[in-house]
Amino acid sequence: MNDSVEIYTDGACKGNPGPGGWGAWMLYNGKEKTLHGGEALTTNNRMELTAVIRALEALKRPCSIKLYTDSSYVQKGITEWIVGWKARNWRTADKKPVKNDDLWKTLDVLANQHSIEWIWVRGHDGNDGNERADSLANDGVAAFL
Hints:
This protein is α/β, with parallel strands linked by helices. The protein has a single domain, classed as Nucleotidyltransferase, domain 5 (2-Layer Sandwich), CATH 3.30.420.10. The chain has 4 helices and 5 strands, in the order βββαβααβα.
């Protein structure tokens, strides 16, 4: 996996639930790619997950990835919580169904095709990549406002 990619993702929601958007800014070999979209009625967590899924789906082969997200839900979910969820057949520690399990299952399959370093960044804190992803996510929401 010599292909090294940097990905910044973000989700946005106006109301939670409400109209939502997702965005991804991808950097590879001096080139960049932007992705964004949205849904009329969704949650912020679903948009955060969708941003990561759409970015990983855009890759054409296994890559070494630094993936930046301001969502601790995404970062902790994929690096810590998912092991227990899978062991408990997609149930939380208190036996409730895992929320957004459809997206988590998709993300699990995609993430396992790559070598990913999951990096949490503070949102709206001047990180250029995060600001770009946030702007793209808001572009995604705009279509539904």
